[in-house]
Write a structure and sequence with these properties.
Structural class: alpha/beta
Order of helices and strands: HEHHEHEHHHHEHEHHHEHEE
Largest sheet: 5 strands, parallel
Helix content: 40-55%
Number of strands: 8
Number of helices: 13
Radius of gyration: 24 Å
Distance between the termini: 47 Å
Length: about 350
């Protein structure tokens, strides 16, 4: 009887990665080359997820179910979690730079968005829309305005898509002045404009998807890539970003990266749920709402930030102890091993 053998691990599975930390280049967020990335394994994992989502964007086709019953929402956000100073922003810069080189023919790279820089009454959705429009306008703004030209047709399609989308923009929180209820007593308003505005709000997500598809066709790309950096810093902006991802960035043709601290995301969601349950607390004070809030929080985060798409940037100390990495510090032209007891 043959002896059973234990499967052997490949060298890559047990050989730690050697990383050189250059102190004079580690004082600000920027792109890092191979061999100097603190989280090399996590970097490779994110690239594989982006490549997988890109393939889905290439293969995506509208199903009969979606055409008949409503949009099928895909929540595939790639979340990058880590504490303050763990290198999340540099990680995003490195991912974006290398994606532009590796997938530039298929992916249109948008900017890394810092929501804390958005004006108080601004909306994250409008910022995303403006970034896409900026890319498209560079292509369609040509001197040739001859009607049969491709450029003319592209401008016309894009303008129509923007017009359709604009009908529902007023539905966004803190955007516009809202509807004047007195207008709804005017039959002409209800028949000609009021119902159009309501329909525009209902179809905002659908119209945005169509705009994305037209934009990618004009740009000759398969997907957009964008990232939200450290949205957990500002509670109000953080919630706006999460809701924008949940409601509108649901297409396979938009690859979304999100960085931050998972604990702070959790607190953000819990704060919102406690606010919504405030009146019930007054009426049903004896009920344990902590259990309800915890259930809603778990469901929300599991749906929006799927466990399989989560990447954790651990500290250098934790990585050394795990055996994944060997770090060498370079300073003043010499190197030294970094060790922790």
């Amino acid at each position: 009887m043959a002896e059973s053998q234990t499967p052997q691990q490949s060298p890559q599975e047990h050989t730690p990665k050697e990383i050189v930390i250059k102190l004079n280049e580690s004082t600000y967020a920027h792109y890092f080359h191979v061999g100097t990335r603190i989280h090399e394994l996590e970097y490779n994992r994110v690239l594989k997820m982006i490549e997988s989502q890109l393939q889905k964007a290439i293969d995506v086709k509208n199903s009969d179910e979606e055409k008949s019953y409503g949009l099928i929402r895909h929540h595939n956000t790639i979340s990058i979690f880590g504490g303050r100073g763990s290198g999340k922003t540099s990680f995003l810069h490195t991912i974006f730079t290398d994606c532009a080189t590796k997938y530039g023919s298929d992916i249109e790279i948008l900017k890394i968005i810092d929501p804390t820089l958005i004006e108080t009454r601004g909306h994250v959705f409008l910022w995303v829309l403006s970034l896409i429009d900026e890319k498209v306008q560079k292509v369609i703004q040509e001197d040739n305005i001859d009607i049969p030209s491709k450029s003319y047709q592209q401008r016309r399609h894009w303008k129509t898509a923007l017009h359709n989308l604009a009908k529902g923009i007023h539905a966004l929180e803190n955007v516009g002045v809202g509807m004047d209820n007195s207008n709804w007593h005017d039959d002409d308003f209800v028949a000609e404009r009021g119902l159009q505005e309501v329909k525009g709000a209902l179809f905002l997500e659908k119209n945005f998807r169509e705009l994305v598809s037209i934009g990618l066709e004009i740009l000759n790309k398969k997907a957009f890539l964008l990232a939200f950096d450290d949205i957990d810093v500002d509670m109000a902006k953080g919630w706006s970003v999460l809701e924008t991802i949940r409601k509108y960035l649901t297409s396979d043709k938009i690859i979304v990266l999100l960085s931050g601290n998972l604990r702070l995301y959790s607190l953000n969601v819990r704060k919102r749920q406690w606010h919504q349950l405030q009146e019930l607390q007054e009426w049903e004070g004896e009920k344990d709402f902590k259990i309800v809030v915890s259930e809603i929080e778990g469901q929300y985060l599991m749906k929006l930030l799927k466990a399989e798409n989560r990447v954790y940037l651990h500290s250098i100390q934790d990585n050394i102890r795990s055996g994944k990495y060997i770090y060498k510090v370079m300073g003043n032209g010499s190197t030294a091993d970094m060790q922790f007891e």
